Amino acid sequence: MAKQQSFSLVLVILIILFTNSSSANAAQYNVLTFGAKPDGKTDSTKAFLAAWTRACESIKPATVYAPPGRFFLLNVVFPGPCKNNAILVRVDGTLVAPSDYRLTGNAGNWIFFQYVNGVTLSGGVLDGQGPGLWACKASGNNCPSGATSLGFSNSNNIVISGLTSLNSQLYHIVINGCQNVKVQGVTVSASGHSPNTDGIHVQLSSGVTILNSRIRTGDDCVSIGAGTTNLWIEKVACGPGHGISIGSLGKDLQEPGVQNVTIKSVAFTGTQNGLRIKSWGRPSNGFARNILFQHAIMTNVQNPMVIDQNYCPDNNNCPGQESGVKISDVTYQDIHGTSATQVAVKFDCSKKNPCTGIKLENVKLTYMNQPADASCNNADGNASGFVLPSSCL
Ligand SMILES: *[C@@H]1O[C@H](CO)[C@@H](O)[C@H](O)[C@H]1NC(C)=O
Ligand SMILES: *[C@@H]1O[C@H](CO)[C@@H](O)[C@H](O)[C@H]1NC(C)=O
Protein backbone atom coordinates (compact mmCIF):
# COMPACT_ATOMS: atom_id res chain seq x y z
CA MET A 1 0.00 0.00 0.00
CA ALA A 2 2.76 2.42 1.05
CA LYS A 3 4.64 1.44 -2.07
CA GLN A 4 1.61 2.20 -4.23
CA GLN A 5 1.12 5.59 -2.57
CA SER A 6 4.67 6.65 -3.12
CA PHE A 7 4.39 5.43 -6.72
CA SER A 8 1.29 7.63 -7.23
CA LEU A 9 3.09 10.52 -5.58
CA VAL A 10 5.99 10.19 -8.02
CA LEU A 11 3.49 10.04 -10.86
CA VAL A 12 1.75 13.21 -9.68
CA ILE A 13 5.07 15.00 -9.33
CA LEU A 14 6.07 13.88 -12.81
CA ILE A 15 2.77 15.14 -14.23
CA ILE A 16 3.20 18.49 -12.48
CA LEU A 17 6.78 18.78 -13.74
CA PHE A 18 5.72 17.87 -17.25
CA THR A 19 2.80 20.33 -17.26
CA ASN A 20 4.98 23.07 -15.84
CA SER A 21 7.80 22.54 -18.28
CA SER A 22 5.43 22.48 -21.25
CA SER A 23 3.71 25.69 -20.12
CA ALA A 24 7.12 27.28 -19.65
CA ASN A 25 7.87 26.20 -23.22
CA ALA A 26 7.60 28.38 -26.25
CA ALA A 27 4.27 29.80 -27.27
CA GLN A 28 3.48 28.37 -30.72
CA TYR A 29 2.11 30.42 -33.58
CA ASN A 30 1.14 28.26 -36.51
CA VAL A 31 0.85 30.29 -39.73
CA LEU A 32 -2.28 28.29 -40.68
CA THR A 33 -4.05 29.82 -37.67
CA PHE A 34 -3.39 33.24 -39.20
CA GLY A 35 -4.79 32.30 -42.60
CA ALA A 36 -1.78 30.98 -44.51
CA LYS A 37 -2.74 28.58 -47.34
CA PRO A 38 -0.37 25.74 -48.21
CA ASP A 39 -1.59 25.71 -51.82
CA GLY A 40 1.45 27.30 -53.50
CA LYS A 41 -0.52 30.21 -54.92
CA THR A 42 -2.45 32.16 -52.28
CA ASP A 43 -0.29 34.99 -50.93
CA SER A 44 0.45 34.03 -47.32
CA THR A 45 2.64 37.06 -46.56
CA LYS A 46 0.13 38.63 -44.15
CA ALA A 47 -0.35 35.38 -42.25
CA PHE A 48 3.40 34.87 -41.79
CA LEU A 49 3.76 38.45 -40.61
CA ALA A 50 0.86 38.12 -38.18
CA ALA A 51 2.40 34.96 -36.66
CA TRP A 52 5.78 36.72 -36.46
CA THR A 53 4.26 39.77 -34.77
CA ARG A 54 2.70 37.56 -32.07
CA ALA A 55 6.00 35.74 -31.50
CA CYS A 56 7.92 39.01 -31.46
CA GLU A 57 5.55 40.56 -28.93
CA SER A 58 5.66 37.52 -26.66
CA ILE A 59 7.65 38.09 -23.49
CA LYS A 60 8.37 34.34 -23.40
CA PRO A 61 10.28 32.29 -25.98
CA ALA A 62 8.06 31.76 -29.01
CA THR A 63 7.81 29.60 -32.09
CA VAL A 64 6.49 30.49 -35.52
CA TYR A 65 5.56 27.27 -37.27
CA ALA A 66 4.96 26.65 -40.97
CA PRO A 67 3.78 23.06 -41.52
CA PRO A 68 4.38 21.00 -44.68
CA GLY A 69 2.95 22.46 -47.89
CA ARG A 70 3.88 25.19 -50.33
CA PHE A 71 3.40 28.75 -49.09
CA PHE A 72 3.50 31.53 -51.65
CA LEU A 73 5.10 34.67 -50.23
CA LEU A 74 5.40 37.94 -52.10
CA ASN A 75 8.11 39.43 -50.01
CA VAL A 76 8.36 39.54 -46.25
CA VAL A 77 10.27 41.69 -43.81
CA PHE A 78 10.40 40.24 -40.28
CA PRO A 79 11.35 43.22 -38.15
CA GLY A 80 12.71 43.44 -34.62
CA PRO A 81 13.52 44.36 -32.02
CA CYS A 82 11.33 41.81 -30.23
CA LYS A 83 10.27 41.46 -26.60
CA ASN A 84 12.05 38.12 -26.22
CA ASN A 85 15.36 36.86 -27.57
CA ALA A 86 14.41 33.26 -28.31
CA ILE A 87 12.27 32.98 -31.41
CA LEU A 88 12.28 29.75 -33.35
CA VAL A 89 10.96 29.92 -36.89
CA ARG A 90 10.39 26.30 -37.80
CA VAL A 91 9.52 25.55 -41.38
CA ASP A 92 8.52 22.05 -42.46
CA GLY A 93 7.20 23.28 -45.79
CA THR A 94 8.42 25.18 -48.83
CA LEU A 95 8.27 28.95 -49.16
CA VAL A 96 7.73 29.93 -52.78
CA ALA A 97 8.67 33.28 -54.34
CA PRO A 98 6.70 34.80 -57.23
CA SER A 99 7.86 33.45 -60.58
CA ASP A 100 7.30 36.92 -62.09
CA TYR A 101 10.55 38.65 -61.16
CA ARG A 102 8.99 42.08 -61.70
CA LEU A 103 7.17 41.57 -58.39
CA THR A 104 10.28 41.20 -56.20
CA GLY A 105 13.18 42.03 -58.53
CA ASN A 106 13.78 45.42 -56.94
CA ALA A 107 12.87 44.49 -53.37
CA GLY A 108 16.47 43.84 -52.27
CA ASN A 109 15.46 40.79 -50.27
CA TRP A 110 12.66 38.30 -50.63
CA ILE A 111 12.66 37.04 -46.99
CA PHE A 112 14.33 39.52 -44.71
CA PHE A 113 15.02 39.69 -40.97
CA GLN A 114 16.33 42.91 -39.47
CA TYR A 115 17.16 44.20 -35.99
CA VAL A 116 16.41 40.80 -34.44
CA ASN A 117 18.27 39.07 -31.60
CA GLY A 118 18.15 35.35 -30.83
CA VAL A 119 16.32 34.04 -33.88
CA THR A 120 16.69 30.46 -35.10
CA LEU A 121 15.45 29.61 -38.57
CA SER A 122 15.18 25.86 -38.78
CA GLY A 123 14.40 23.65 -41.76
CA GLY A 124 12.38 24.67 -44.74
CA VAL A 125 12.92 25.01 -48.44
CA LEU A 126 13.14 28.45 -50.04
CA ASP A 127 12.21 28.32 -53.68
CA GLY A 128 13.43 31.62 -55.15
CA GLN A 129 11.98 31.00 -58.65
CA GLY A 130 15.08 32.61 -60.16
CA PRO A 131 15.16 31.14 -63.70
CA GLY A 132 12.86 33.85 -65.15
CA LEU A 133 15.23 36.59 -64.08
CA TRP A 134 18.33 34.62 -65.12
CA ALA A 135 16.84 34.29 -68.61
CA CYS A 136 16.10 38.03 -68.70
CA LYS A 137 19.72 38.79 -67.72
CA ALA A 138 21.04 36.34 -70.32
CA SER A 139 18.96 38.01 -73.04
CA GLY A 140 20.73 41.31 -72.42
CA ASN A 141 17.44 43.08 -71.76
CA ASN A 142 17.04 45.65 -69.06
CA CYS A 143 16.21 43.56 -65.99
CA PRO A 144 15.92 44.30 -62.28
CA SER A 145 18.96 43.20 -60.28
CA GLY A 146 16.87 40.63 -58.38
CA ALA A 147 16.17 39.86 -54.74
CA THR A 148 18.36 37.97 -52.30
CA SER A 149 16.34 34.97 -51.10
CA LEU A 150 17.15 35.25 -47.39
CA GLY A 151 18.73 38.25 -45.69
CA PHE A 152 19.67 38.91 -42.07
CA SER A 153 20.68 42.48 -41.34
CA ASN A 154 21.82 44.23 -38.16
CA SER A 155 20.98 41.18 -36.08
CA ASN A 156 22.70 39.17 -33.36
CA ASN A 157 22.72 35.57 -32.15
CA ILE A 158 21.22 33.99 -35.22
CA VAL A 159 21.08 30.31 -36.19
CA ILE A 160 20.16 29.13 -39.68
CA SER A 161 19.93 25.37 -39.63
CA GLY A 162 18.87 22.64 -42.03
CA LEU A 163 17.60 25.10 -44.61
CA THR A 164 17.53 24.44 -48.36
CA SER A 165 17.70 27.38 -50.76
CA LEU A 166 16.82 26.74 -54.40
CA ASN A 167 17.23 28.99 -57.43
CA SER A 168 17.54 32.42 -55.89
CA GLN A 169 17.12 35.43 -58.20
CA LEU A 170 20.27 37.02 -56.79
CA TYR A 171 22.24 35.85 -53.71
CA HIS A 172 20.84 32.91 -51.75
CA ILE A 173 21.73 34.03 -48.20
CA VAL A 174 23.20 37.37 -47.06
CA ILE A 175 24.51 38.10 -43.55
CA ASN A 176 25.03 41.84 -43.21
CA GLY A 177 25.93 43.81 -40.12
CA CYS A 178 25.43 40.83 -37.79
CA GLN A 179 27.22 39.35 -34.77
CA ASN A 180 27.34 35.70 -33.77
CA VAL A 181 25.64 33.85 -36.59
CA LYS A 182 25.73 30.08 -37.07
CA VAL A 183 24.81 28.63 -40.43
CA GLN A 184 24.79 24.84 -40.43
CA GLY A 185 23.53 21.96 -42.52
CA VAL A 186 22.45 24.28 -45.29
CA THR A 187 21.98 23.17 -48.90
CA VAL A 188 22.12 25.68 -51.71
CA SER A 189 21.24 24.62 -55.20
CA ALA A 190 21.07 26.58 -58.45
CA SER A 191 22.34 26.14 -61.99
CA GLY A 192 26.08 26.54 -62.57
CA HIS A 193 25.10 29.13 -65.19
CA SER A 194 22.86 31.27 -62.99
CA PRO A 195 24.20 34.84 -62.67
CA ASN A 196 25.07 36.45 -59.29
CA THR A 197 23.56 33.62 -57.27
CA ASP A 198 26.23 33.56 -54.55
CA GLY A 199 25.52 30.87 -51.97
CA ILE A 200 26.28 32.76 -48.76
CA HIS A 201 27.53 36.34 -48.66
CA VAL A 202 28.90 37.78 -45.41
CA GLN A 203 29.82 41.42 -44.83
CA LEU A 204 30.27 43.89 -41.97
CA SER A 205 29.78 40.98 -39.58
CA SER A 206 31.70 39.33 -36.78
CA GLY A 207 31.57 35.80 -35.39
CA VAL A 208 29.89 34.08 -38.33
CA THR A 209 30.32 30.29 -38.52
CA ILE A 210 29.35 28.24 -41.58
CA LEU A 211 29.41 24.47 -41.05
CA ASN A 212 28.51 21.25 -42.85
CA SER A 213 26.95 22.79 -45.91
CA ARG A 214 26.66 21.94 -49.59
CA ILE A 215 26.60 24.77 -52.14
CA ARG A 216 26.01 24.33 -55.87
CA THR A 217 25.48 27.58 -57.69
CA GLY A 218 26.45 29.92 -60.54
CA ASP A 219 28.55 32.43 -58.61
CA ASP A 220 30.63 32.37 -55.41
CA CYS A 221 30.06 29.49 -53.02
CA VAL A 222 30.76 31.84 -50.12
CA SER A 223 31.73 35.47 -50.67
CA ILE A 224 33.33 37.45 -47.90
CA GLY A 225 32.92 41.18 -48.09
CA ALA A 226 34.53 44.16 -46.37
CA GLY A 227 34.21 44.35 -42.60
CA THR A 228 34.09 40.59 -41.98
CA THR A 229 35.99 39.50 -38.87
CA ASN A 230 36.26 36.24 -36.90
CA LEU A 231 34.70 34.12 -39.64
CA TRP A 232 34.91 30.34 -39.44
CA ILE A 233 34.02 28.06 -42.36
CA GLU A 234 34.34 24.30 -41.96
CA LYS A 235 33.20 21.23 -43.90
CA VAL A 236 31.68 22.97 -46.86
CA ALA A 237 31.43 21.44 -50.32
CA CYS A 238 31.40 23.83 -53.27
CA GLY A 239 30.65 23.26 -56.93
CA PRO A 240 29.62 24.14 -59.44
CA GLY A 241 30.30 27.84 -58.91
CA HIS A 242 33.13 30.30 -58.45
CA GLY A 243 34.56 28.95 -55.18
CA ILE A 244 35.16 30.76 -51.90
CA SER A 245 36.19 34.37 -52.33
CA ILE A 246 37.42 37.01 -49.94
CA GLY A 247 36.33 40.09 -51.86
CA SER A 248 35.97 41.86 -54.03
CA LEU A 249 37.58 44.22 -51.55
CA GLY A 250 38.74 47.77 -52.06
CA LYS A 251 35.96 49.09 -54.22
CA ASP A 252 35.66 52.06 -51.88
CA LEU A 253 38.37 54.41 -50.71
CA GLN A 254 37.30 54.06 -47.08
CA GLU A 255 36.53 50.47 -46.24
CA PRO A 256 36.69 48.25 -43.15
CA GLY A 257 39.07 45.32 -43.49
CA VAL A 258 38.72 41.55 -43.34
CA GLN A 259 40.47 39.88 -40.44
CA ASN A 260 40.81 36.49 -38.73
CA VAL A 261 39.20 34.17 -41.24
CA THR A 262 39.55 30.37 -41.02
CA ILE A 263 38.46 28.22 -43.93
CA LYS A 264 39.08 24.53 -43.30
CA SER A 265 38.07 21.14 -44.65
CA VAL A 266 36.46 22.41 -47.81
CA ALA A 267 36.05 20.56 -51.10
CA PHE A 268 35.82 22.23 -54.48
CA THR A 269 34.53 20.28 -57.45
CA GLY A 270 34.63 21.70 -60.96
CA THR A 271 34.64 25.28 -59.71
CA GLN A 272 36.11 28.31 -61.46
CA ASN A 273 38.20 29.18 -58.39
CA GLY A 274 39.06 27.43 -55.17
CA LEU A 275 40.46 29.73 -52.49
CA ARG A 276 40.50 33.28 -53.76
CA ILE A 277 41.29 36.74 -52.46
CA LYS A 278 40.28 39.49 -54.82
CA SER A 279 40.56 43.27 -54.71
CA TRP A 280 39.84 46.09 -57.08
CA GLY A 281 42.78 47.84 -58.70
CA ARG A 282 41.74 51.06 -57.02
CA PRO A 283 42.89 53.22 -54.12
CA SER A 284 41.47 52.01 -50.79
CA ASN A 285 42.43 51.72 -47.14
CA GLY A 286 40.98 48.18 -46.94
CA PHE A 287 42.92 45.09 -45.90
CA ALA A 288 42.77 41.31 -45.51
CA ARG A 289 44.91 39.73 -42.80
CA ASN A 290 45.24 36.64 -40.63
CA ILE A 291 43.65 34.29 -43.10
CA LEU A 292 44.03 30.52 -42.75
CA PHE A 293 43.14 28.14 -45.57
CA GLN A 294 43.53 24.59 -44.25
CA HIS A 295 42.73 21.10 -45.57
CA ALA A 296 41.21 21.78 -48.98
CA ILE A 297 40.57 19.26 -51.72
CA MET A 298 40.45 20.55 -55.29
CA THR A 299 38.93 18.45 -58.04
CA ASN A 300 39.31 19.87 -61.51
CA VAL A 301 39.34 23.50 -60.33
CA GLN A 302 40.36 26.18 -62.86
CA ASN A 303 42.20 28.43 -60.36
CA PRO A 304 42.71 26.49 -57.13
CA MET A 305 44.68 29.20 -55.27
CA VAL A 306 44.45 32.77 -56.41
CA ILE A 307 45.11 36.27 -55.15
CA ASP A 308 43.99 38.82 -57.70
CA GLN A 309 44.55 42.47 -56.82
CA ASN A 310 43.87 43.69 -60.31
CA TYR A 311 40.15 43.17 -60.46
CA CYS A 312 38.74 45.80 -62.78
CA PRO A 313 35.78 44.65 -64.86
CA ASP A 314 35.77 46.29 -68.30
CA ASN A 315 38.93 48.15 -67.23
CA ASN A 316 36.66 50.82 -65.92
CA ASN A 317 37.19 53.13 -62.97
CA CYS A 318 40.55 51.83 -61.80
CA PRO A 319 42.84 54.87 -61.76
CA GLY A 320 46.45 53.71 -61.95
CA GLN A 321 45.25 50.09 -61.54
CA GLU A 322 47.07 49.72 -58.21
CA SER A 323 45.08 48.24 -55.37
CA GLY A 324 45.32 50.00 -52.03
CA VAL A 325 44.21 46.84 -50.19
CA LYS A 326 46.93 45.37 -47.97
CA ILE A 327 47.00 41.58 -47.89
CA SER A 328 49.09 39.97 -45.17
CA ASP A 329 49.50 36.78 -43.16
CA VAL A 330 47.71 34.34 -45.41
CA THR A 331 48.48 30.66 -44.74
CA TYR A 332 47.73 27.78 -47.11
CA GLN A 333 48.07 24.46 -45.30
CA ASP A 334 47.39 21.01 -46.73
CA ILE A 335 45.83 21.97 -50.03
CA HIS A 336 45.77 19.24 -52.64
CA GLY A 337 44.08 17.92 -55.73
CA THR A 338 43.77 18.73 -59.40
CA SER A 339 43.80 21.95 -61.37
CA ALA A 340 41.89 22.30 -64.63
CA THR A 341 44.53 24.75 -65.92
CA GLN A 342 48.32 24.81 -66.03
CA VAL A 343 48.65 27.65 -63.50
CA ALA A 344 47.25 26.31 -60.24
CA VAL A 345 48.72 28.97 -57.95
CA LYS A 346 48.51 32.60 -58.93
CA PHE A 347 49.45 35.42 -56.58
CA ASP A 348 48.99 38.67 -58.46
CA CYS A 349 49.42 41.32 -55.79
CA SER A 350 49.45 45.09 -55.82
CA LYS A 351 52.70 46.77 -56.94
CA LYS A 352 52.01 49.54 -54.45
CA ASN A 353 51.08 47.16 -51.60
CA PRO A 354 52.79 43.79 -52.12
CA CYS A 355 51.30 40.81 -50.29
CA THR A 356 53.35 39.91 -47.22
CA GLY A 357 53.52 36.89 -44.95
CA ILE A 358 52.12 34.39 -47.45
CA LYS A 359 52.86 30.91 -46.16
CA LEU A 360 52.60 27.67 -48.06
CA GLU A 361 52.72 24.38 -46.15
CA ASN A 362 52.09 21.03 -47.78
CA VAL A 363 50.50 21.92 -51.06
CA LYS A 364 50.13 19.47 -53.93
CA LEU A 365 48.30 20.48 -57.05
CA THR A 366 48.60 18.75 -60.38
CA TYR A 367 47.44 19.50 -63.90
CA MET A 368 46.77 16.53 -66.17
CA ASN A 369 48.83 14.29 -63.89
CA GLN A 370 51.83 16.64 -64.11
CA PRO A 371 53.04 19.25 -61.65
CA ALA A 372 51.08 22.45 -62.21
CA ASP A 373 52.68 25.93 -62.38
CA ALA A 374 52.77 28.82 -59.93
CA SER A 375 52.99 32.48 -60.76
CA CYS A 376 53.80 35.37 -58.41
CA ASN A 377 53.75 39.14 -58.74
CA ASN A 378 54.63 41.31 -55.77
CA ALA A 379 54.05 38.44 -53.34
CA ASP A 380 56.30 37.85 -50.36
CA GLY A 381 56.40 34.97 -47.93
CA ASN A 382 57.79 31.47 -47.64
CA ALA A 383 57.08 27.81 -48.11
CA SER A 384 57.63 24.76 -45.92
CA GLY A 385 56.94 21.06 -46.17
CA PHE A 386 56.17 19.54 -49.54
CA VAL A 387 55.04 22.28 -51.96
CA LEU A 388 54.02 21.58 -55.53
CA PRO A 389 53.98 23.56 -57.79
CA SER A 390 57.22 24.80 -56.26
CA SER A 391 56.82 28.13 -54.56
CA CYS A 392 57.31 31.34 -56.51
CA LEU A 393 57.36 33.47 -53.35
C1 LIG B 1 39.25 34.52 -34.46
O1 LIG B 1 37.97 34.05 -34.78
C2 LIG B 1 37.54 32.92 -34.02
C3 LIG B 1 36.18 32.53 -34.53
O2 LIG B 1 36.22 32.24 -35.88
C4 LIG B 1 37.51 33.26 -32.57
O3 LIG B 1 37.16 32.10 -31.83
C5 LIG B 1 38.87 33.76 -32.14
O4 LIG B 1 38.81 34.18 -30.80
C6 LIG B 1 39.28 34.93 -33.01
N1 LIG B 1 40.64 35.34 -32.67
C7 LIG B 1 40.94 36.59 -32.35
C8 LIG B 1 42.36 36.86 -32.05
O5 LIG B 1 40.11 37.48 -32.30
C1 LIG C 1 58.88 32.48 -42.98
O1 LIG C 1 58.11 33.63 -42.73
C2 LIG C 1 57.97 33.92 -41.38
C3 LIG C 1 57.05 35.12 -41.24
O2 LIG C 1 56.61 35.57 -42.45
C4 LIG C 1 59.31 34.21 -40.75
O3 LIG C 1 59.17 34.44 -39.39
C5 LIG C 1 60.20 33.03 -40.98
O4 LIG C 1 61.51 33.33 -40.53
C6 LIG C 1 60.26 32.68 -42.43
N1 LIG C 1 61.02 31.45 -42.59
C7 LIG C 1 61.96 31.32 -43.50
C8 LIG C 1 62.63 29.99 -43.56
O5 LIG C 1 62.26 32.23 -44.27
From TrEMBL:
Its main location: secreted. Keywords: Cell wall, Cell wall biogenesis/degradation, Glycosidase, Hydrolase, Secreted, Signal. It is found in: Secreted, Cell wall. The active site is at H242. One of its GO terms (molecular function) is polygalacturonase activity. The keyword ATP-binding does not apply. Residues 1-26 form the signal peptide. It comes from the Eukaryota. Transmembrane segments: none annotated. GO terms for biological process: carbohydrate metabolic process; cell wall organization. PANTHER family: PTHR31375. Belongs to the glycosyl hydrolase 28 family. This is Polygalacturonase. It comes from Hevea brasiliensis. The lineage of its organism: Eukaryota, Viridiplantae, Streptophyta, Embryophyta, Tracheophyta.
